[in-house]
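hi! just following up on the protien thing from before. the input was this:
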Amino acid sequence: MAIGNIIRRDGGPGKAVAVWRWSRRAVLASTALLVAVGSGVAPARAEYPEKIIKIVVPFAAGGGTDIVARTTAQEIQTDLGKPVIIENKPGAGTIIGTQTVATSEPDGYSLLMATFAHAVNPSLYNKLPFDPHKDFAAVSLIARSFNVVVVNPASKINSIPDLIAEAKAKPGKLNFGTFGIGTSAHLAGELFNAMANVKMTAIPYKGAAPAISDLLGGQIDVMFTTVASAASLVAAGQLRALAVTSAERSAAFPQLPTVAEAGVPGYAAESWYGLYAPAKTPAAVIARLNQAVAKAVQSGGFKQLATNEGLIMVGSAPQELDRYVAQEEERWRKLVKDANIEVQ
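and the predicted 3d structure came back as:
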């Protein structure tokens, strides 16, 4: 706090005394610090963020969630003024990556890009190593998405009514590929079974790529797959799209009907992307992150994603994410129970 010193010779040649010169501001600041320490009041914290922020993605790199997370990171770091990096921690149906954030310091520097599984896992597993409600603080519902019902172009199934008729004619014989038990591709198909009163058999795969490979090869009959995994193949004529699983038609596939309007009234199955922080993260930090996300979803990067991935951009308040996920959890819990779906 001293702004300099002067050397004064005193007491004769060769003797010097250093005299510190203090500014009035430095004296006042020093006094305030001593008063704060003496009273037990901690000095004010520096404004968030002060260092690199990490977003944990509970899936491998390259998938839809990873793409959304990286776009989010790229956009919010500009607003926040600090780097935002991605850490991919796949495994155990998103549980490994999710637990990492649940047990992180609640300081806003470790975040989770949660998806459909966050609302479904409580119904699939008897016990989770975290509480999806108590261990997390909602930041924002970033976007919602949907799946596309696709078949091999050589298939005689050309529409949702055709799919229903074929499934009813061959109970249990028609099969649909999934990305694993409890994934959006799986539960969208099980919801179709329940609401169309048919019985198709789910065939689990370790991801979208091997499932689509078998669909292209004719080993499975149909998929309720993500837009990201199907769009280019549909455009190239390698897959035939029958409908979208959203409640309304999509600008990404304006020519496709919804499953509901094509023959299964009331049907709707969505995926989503939401940002969470650990529980007890300061409200001011949550508010700052929410502000950055709300700005990010209006960016050119996200507009491009909306076109390519069929996303519906949201950028909600934290309480809206809590409300939405609670509704999704309740909805899928009933289906999981009714369909006797179990994790092997």
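The longest strand covers residues 136-151.
The chain has three domains: 2-32, 53-144+273-338, 146-262.
cheers
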